[in-house]
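Sample intake sheet
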Amino acid sequence: MLFHIQSSLLLGLGLYFVDALAGPLNLDQRAPQCSADNCARAVTGTAPSNPPLATRKADCASFFGTSTVTPQQVTVTQTATVTSPVTQTASTTTTAILTATVTNLAKRANRLEERAGTVPAYASPCSGTVRYSSACSCFGVTQATVTAAAPTSTSIVTVTASPTVSTATTLVVQTTTTVAKTCPTSPVVNGGFESGSISPFNFQSFPAALGGFGSSAVVVNDPALANSGSYLLSVNADVEFAGPNFALTQTLSLCPGSTYKVAFYTASQCPRAGACSCALEACLGGNCGGFDPPGGDAPRSRQEFTFNVPDTAGPTTELKIDLADFGGGIRLCERRFVRFDDFSVTLVQ
């Protein structure tokens, strides 16, 4: 008898210290222990004062309630590189910057539990919710657990992008081509009449101022009279006292805007004693200079003129020897003949 009392006392003290040490221990952290005591008999026993067994099981299920577990959210981060195919022509180098700011709105998983937590009156022998829960567990009733769907992770992505700038440089090359002028240095052909003919000179005869007579041109082969070589040109008046009226020309290829020197040798013969007049002119490119051929049989007197060919002149220019206009259209050369030799046109610049 004494042994039974001491055992009961020790058992009661043990349960008291267990409850005191456990304190408000979470029911999910304590493993149920089945004890054949008044609490267990009130919950799982067959005492006639208790409600039916089915009712007591339902009360246990209601006590445990439902535990809803929401799994912890898993966030997956994906990085995308975006290249904007924008081409901009510029003369400077621009660095493109792509900035992405990600705000993660995910939340940690929560564990939600709903429990009735009310101990029925017929289970008053149970010292508290821990003893009642243990008795219900031994009764075969456990807490129902519902696993909820994992929460959705929402990511807000703010992207500030500058497009890729392609710098293109257009090189404009301006080429100035300078074409050197190829100017004949001595464009006169057959200037000394050494071919034995007047060509390519052209000769024209006009009526004389006195008497309406003309003139003729003859290539003379006489080394003693020629200034050089064997030939010279003699322009003779048809009537001595009337004098010649003529134009001797040759078309030359010259450079416009250039300066040329015109030279030749001449002589003439007056048909009478005393002084007589003869006004001739040498022209190149529309510029003319006058001269009066001195007396003599051989053309030894050098005549020289410098003319500038205008920029507006064409590719060809005429060299001309003719009678100058005295005024009023009167052209006069009181000479029996006028002789020429060694025409030349030389480029100065």
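Comment: The two ends are 157 Å apart (CA to CA). The helical segments are 2-22, 38-44, 53-64, 129-138.
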